[in-house]
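R.M. (postdoc): so does anyone remember the format we settled on? I'll just put the C-alpha cells first.
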C-alpha cells in the first residue's frame, strides 16, 4: 500500500474509534450512574480508546459489586 493511502486509511480508522459508555441503576434506590472516560486528543486514538474502554468496564464492575445493574 502506498504511504499516502496508508496514512489516509489510518486517519479514517481513527475517526471510528469511540469510547464506551455504561449506564447502571441501583434497583433499590433508583440512582443512575454513568461510567465513561473522556480523554483528550491522543496521537494513538485507537490505542487510547482501548485503554479508555478498559477503565470504563472497571468502573462499571465496581458499581455492579455494589448492587447496581447495567442498563445497556
Amino acid at each position: 500500500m502506498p504511504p499516502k493511502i496508508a496514512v489516509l486509511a489510518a486517519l479514517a480508522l481513527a475517526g471510528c474509534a469511540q469510547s464506551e459508555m455504561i449506564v447502571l441503576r441501583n434497583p433499590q434506590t433508583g440512582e443512575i450512574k454513568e461510567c465513561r472516560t473522556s480523554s483528550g486528543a491522543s496521537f494513538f486514538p485507537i490505542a487510547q480508546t482501548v485503554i479508555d474502554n478498559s477503565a470504563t468496564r472497571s468502573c462499571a464492575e465496581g458499581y455492579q459489586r455494589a448492587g447496581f445493574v447495567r442498563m445497556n
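R.M.: ...and that's the designed sequence above, right after the C-alpha cells. Also worth knowing: Residues 3-70 form one domain. The helical segments are 3-16, 45-65.
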